[in-house]
Amino acid sequence: MKLSEAKAQFIQAWGLLGAQWGVNRTMAQIHALLLIAPDPLSAEEIMEALDISRGNANMNVRELMNWGIVEKILVPGERKEFFTAEKDIWKVGIAIARERKKRELDPVLKVLLQLNKVEGDQKDKHVKAFRETIQNIQKFANQTDAALNAFIKSEENWFYSTLLKVIR
Amino acid sequence: MKLSEAKAQFIQAWGLLGAQWGVNRTMAQIHALLLIAPDPLSAEEIMEALDISRGNANMNVRELMNWGIVEKILVPGERKEFFTAEKDIWKVGIAIARERKKRELDPVLKVLLQLNKVEGDQKDKHVKAFRETIQNIQKFANQTDAALNAFIKSEENWFYSTLLKVIR
DNA sequence: TTTATATTTCAATAAGTTTTGAAAGTTCAA
DNA sequence: TTGAACTTTCAAAACTTATTGAAATATAAA
Q: How far apart are CA A87 and CA B128, in angstroms?
């Protein structure tokens, strides 16, 4: 397989995976492109490689920077801005987990906390079922949250290698 | 807060969360509705509660059954079919993890395996960067895969409680 | 059988999301 | 300052995905 073909396949696969997880396809593709680029790329190069408009490129690169997995590089003597992706996949995973937790999970946990206040005749099976479900989800979420925080805090591989030993 | 209000809020929050993770919003809402229902619900009741069409209800209930987190209940003496959701959130999490892995991660891993075959002059930095990225992702994915398989295989809380001890 | 009730399918349509591209804004060398 | 090079914004258009609802199909009691 030729490099150009392999690159295209990788970008395609990464874009599809992103889309299934609620990430804009183009954003995932730009990320893929930067992941396999040996050097930082300019907006022009990204537009060219993926055949997308300037506005689209700009918007998605910015979002990738918000996620903390792409950064802007200023090359001395160049007017243009260049972009590069974090290459350590472990760090990428941590950044994504951290962002999604903050943006998506935390708000739901906040709502669940509120919902404990539901007025309740404990004899009513509807009230009982509701409370139980909310409390179960909260318990599960808090456990997952603790694991995720540990995962994030580690920032190192020790956690993972220890985990692998434990689960065997 | 009244029960009806709390229910509505929960269904809304669960639907939003689902949507952000690439799950059809209605599917997540039906799941939420069934989670807090003390007894199985009929298609009619689901349509009524969420104000959706028969076709929509049917399609999304079926998908929830495919995911293994909702099941059909036949009540003796009733023509109608009723539906109920798995209430143990731990089991729900396992079912979702298993399905997503199978449907989304595994195909990408297969592609990555292919991409190792890229023709390569190791001195070319483009080839080198590509290979390294692919191999890093594969390594990360395989580790995550192992952890997920352990998680799935456990079907019990021992894994989680052990994990919590390890990371402290 | 026949009839009444329930479920499934799917083409048309609605709703939601992403992308474009041109205009406005910014920056910097001359 | 000015103007060229570059970046950002955003309304309109293209595209994608979800939903409806009526027709087709299935099922069970009479």
A: 13
Q: Determine, for residues A1 and B118 on separate chains, whether the beta-carbon distance falls below 8 Å.
A: yes
Does B38 contact A at CB distance below 8 Å? yes
Residue–nucleotide distance: A59 CA to D21 C1' (Å): 39
Query: Which residues are A72's β-sheet partners?
Result: A83
DSSP A115: H
Q: How near does any CA of chain A get to the CA of B59, in Å?
A: 19
CB proximity B76–strand D (7 Å threshold)? no
DSSP A130-168: HHHHHHHHHHHHHHHHHHHHHHHHH-SSHHHHHHHHHH-
Nearest to A160 among B10, B88, B143 (CB): B143
Task: Count other Cβ atoms within 10 Å, centred on residue B49.
Answer: 18
Say if CB A123 and CB A163 are below 8 A apart. no
B123 touching chain A per CB within 8 A: no
Contact between residue B36 and residue B4 where contact means Cβ atoms under 8 Å apart: no
CA count, 13 A, side-chain hemisphere, A130:
27
User: From CA B148, how far away is CA B25, in angstroms rounded?
Assistant: 25
Distance CA B20, CA A10 (A): 24
CB atoms within 10 A of CB B30: 29
Contact of B90 with chain A, judged by CB distance below 8 Å, is answered with yes
pLDDT tens digits, one per residue of B19-52: 999 999 999 999 999 999 999 999 999 999 999 9
Residues 6+ apart with CB under 8 A from B89: A136, A137, A139, A140
Q: What is the DSSP annotation of B38-82? A: SS-EEHHHHHHHHT--HHHHHHHHHHHHHTTSEEEEE-TT-SSEE
| Interchain proximity A143–B133, CB inside 8 Å | no
pLDDT digits (tens, 9 = 90+) for A2-37: 999 999 999 999 999 999 999 999 999 999 999 999
